[in-house]
Amino acid sequence: MNVLVTGGAGYIGSHAALRLLEDGHAVTVIDDLSRGNQGAMDALEGIGSDFAFVAGDIGDRPRVESLLRERSIEVVMHFAALTYVGESTQQPLRYYRNNTASALALIEAMEAVGVRRMVFSSSAATYGEPPPELIPIREDCPQRPINPYGQSKLHVEQILADYARAKRDAGQDFAFASLRYFNVAGNDGKLRLGEDHDPETHLIPICLAVALGQRKAITIFGTDYPTPDGTCIRDYVHVEDLIDAHVSVMHALRPGDARAYNIGIGKGYSVREVIDACRRVTDIKFTEVEGKRREGDPPSLFADPSKIRKDLRWRASHTSLEKIIESAWQWRQQHPRGYGR
Ligand code: UFG
């Protein structure tokens, strides 16, 4: 298939592009490189038989329309987005512009050109702070985001749902799936790609940077949450499993589909458990500091992934937190400065 991967120079998007190329698809990446890595694009050169990278903005509708036509795109995997919960609380307009308005422009471009499939990178952040009786989280859990990041993603889910309904009512073909990710970690098993954000805010990469001596300590954001050890609980899914879910969904989409799936392993780990696992994997007893809560962080988020298991027989193949961290650690050791910025 001819697939457009938006945000394909980012951590998750680049892993999607790699997998699609290896599966023999023609892959076009569009990424404005504001947060993505040119190094990831360089790593994809020579993989597969048809790869194109365009440095550009998905909100630039005429440009995206030309690209959809030129590359005869059949399906869009939409990853391009800003992804920091904390930043979104400080710069909400930037998040709505970048994540919601640009996605709308992309969907309009797809409509103009007649591209009828989208796999959308949504987030567990759309669920907000579910009550304890609704955790593990199923897809029918009410979506009530508590930060602009989650809200910006939920708006896109709603736009897609309304659009798909209108197309179905008009007897026209459109299909999409929203994949609500929990926390993504690890990297390509052959270490061609890795996780390299600037700024880096994620727990596992920061722990690894502390282990490498690049930062002094890991600060635990809040130790007074209503969880067994007082720190936040999250569900860490390996990026290769996450991409496997995208590919399965892409192949399963049928006219009229409006699907939503949670992608996680179905088990939560506290911040303290993740830090301890990072210490075991790296064999370095790095320092932790107890800090105050980060705004916008819900206490506990982990998935009930049974819907995608039932529909598509997808399940996470990497279920050991230590193994997931191990793959990230291997890449980090080879690339202590990430892609070399
Ligand atoms: N944390 C710390 N110290 C740090 C960094 C993180 O204690 O230096 C904590 C956070 O407070 C949180 C947990 O570690 O409790 C995980 O934080 P991350 O920043 O690694 O990830 P988030 O849970 O904030 O966000 C991730 C994705 C979002 C997605 C969300 C859904 O980045 O896009 O998971 O669960 F919405």
Q: Tell me the major beta sheet.
A: 7 strands, parallel
Structural shape: globular
Taking all Cα atoms into account, the compactness measure Rg is 19 Å
Give the class-level CATH name. Answer: Alpha Beta
Structural class: alpha/beta
For the residues shown, what is the average pLDDT? 96
Beta content comes to 15-25%
How is the largest sheet built, in terms of strand order?
A: 3-2-1-4-5-6-11
Number of domain units: 1
What is the fold-level CATH name, i.e. the topology? Rossmann fold
Which small compounds were modeled alongside the protein? Answer: uridine-5'-diphosphate-4-deoxy-4-fluoro-alpha-D-galactose
Distance between the termini: 33 Å
Are there runs of 5+ residues with pLDDT below 50, and where?
A: none
Oligomer: single chain
> Based on the structure given, which CATH architecture is correct?
3-Layer(aba) Sandwich
H-E order: EHEHEHEHHEHEEHEEEHEEHEEHH
